[in-house]
Design a protein that fits this description.
alpha+beta, three-stranded antiparallel β-sheet, 4 helices, 28% helix
Length: 118
Amino acid sequence: MSCYCGRSREYAKCCEPFIKGAKKPESAEQLMRARYSAYNVQDMEYIDRTHDPKTREDNDMEANREWAAKANWQGLDILTLEEGGAKDTKGMVEFVASYEMDGEDVEHHEEAEFVKKE
């Protein structure tokens, strides 16, 4: 099975090692793809761990878990990348996450900023 993030690699060799903590993403794009996959498998602990600490307390992880479980995930399209490479400390990923919810097709379009933390 291809990874939830849209890569042709198997989930176990693509995003799962990041989600399980065996590896750290080297780029903002890898992190974005892993976070999308985490929503697919409802791993809110990973979402919480990789959220900006400054706004982490604003997230309702239980509501996120319920929403993620209810969504029928359709795909992730990465539109734009700015910085966010292995040597960068910050980056921006513009993406569209598609899913079906209550019979409606939804496209979540966002420009997400990432800051590398150790």
